[in-house]
Design a protein that fits this description.
The structure is a single chain. By secondary structure, this protein is mainly α. The chain has one domain. Helix content is about 60%, strand content about 0%. Helix 2 packs across helix 7, helix 5 runs antiparallel to helix 7 and helix 5 packs across helix 8. It is globular, with a radius of gyration of 18 Å.
């Protein structure tokens, strides 16, 4: 079972990635939430290429990714969940919830610490908000995130299945909650009790700092309410709000080479 999970983990993740990306892209074409002024042709190739760069960086730097760390911890008997006796299903569910909480606090940390914000702001510097924005992260941020994830997985003793489910969920929900899709307000109001919706997360990509520093959740929506970082709606409304950050408004900076050097630039 362990060998099979390790062998097919890349296939499982790639399949969900491609499937969710296609569904969200088609949904955006069918029923967009906002009109976009910058053509997809100018943004999408660069936002998709950064995924390739990120994936190569992780595979080169880390001999084992998070699921490998989970198998290693299980073999060594390391981590909290390997030391206490819980039903396997409860351990899996608990690990997923704790990992999601860690990502919430990691996200807040990347906003609060100036040198981490320099890396994370590349994600916020996208001038539109759609499914590919959820893929747009600087390789150095991805490497730091993976390093933290590996440490947490080992300390927690997260079951490998839980890590795989969490990785798939994190990737899928990031594409979903960044998608430029229309969801009726009544449905959105219900959904955001259980999952971060596009309307909820779009607030986080507002040009206004007080809105950018809210709605940090990626998957579970509860943390923002519990820790008082929840903003219900953007002050300008979803159709009129400005996406991005003040210092980077030139569409030329949406290119891959500009994205890679952006954290090292002090101004626009």
């Amino acid at each position: 079972m362990s060998e099979l999970l390790l062998t097919y983990e890349p296939v499982i993740r790639a399949s969900f990635f491609i499937g969710v990306l296609l569904i969200m892209a088609l949904w955006e074409l069918r029923s967009a939430r906002r009109l976009q002024t910058i053509n997809r042709i100018k943004r999408w190739p660069h936002n998709l290429l950064i995924v390739v760069v990120d994936t190569l960086a992780v595979r080169l730097v880390f001999p084992m990714v998070a699921i490998g760390a989970a198998f290693f911890a299980a073999e060594q008997g390391w981590g909290l969940l390997n030391l206490i006796s819980l039903h396997y299903g409860i351990s899996v569910l608990l690990a997923i919830v704790i990992l999601d909480l860690v990502i919430y606090f990691q996200h807040r940390m990347f906003h609060a610490i100036p040198w981490l914000w320099r890396l994370h702001r590349m994600h916020h510097a996208d001038l539109e908000f759609d499914v590919t924005t959820g893929l747009r992260f600087h390789p150095l941020e991805i490497l730091l995130s993976m390093g933290l994830k590996i440490v947490v997985v080992i300390a927690l003793g997260a079951p490998p299945v839980a890590v795989l489910i969490f990785e798939v969920l994190l990737n899928a929900t990031a594409m979903f909650n960044h998608a430029n899709i229309y969801i009726p307000e009544s449905v959105d109001h219900y959904l955001r009790r259980f999952i971060v919706t596009p309307d909820m997360h779009r607030v986080h990509h507002s040009i206004l700092p007080q809105e950018t520093d809210s709605n940090f959740g990626f998957n579970l929506p509860w943390w923002d309410r519990i820790f008082k970082t929840y903003t219900d709606q953007p002050s300008a409304g979803h159709s009129n709000m400005t996406i991005g950050i003040e210092d980077f408004r030139d569409p030329e900076q949406l290119k891959l080479n500009q994205m890679l050097i952006q954290p090292f630039r002090s101004n626009h």
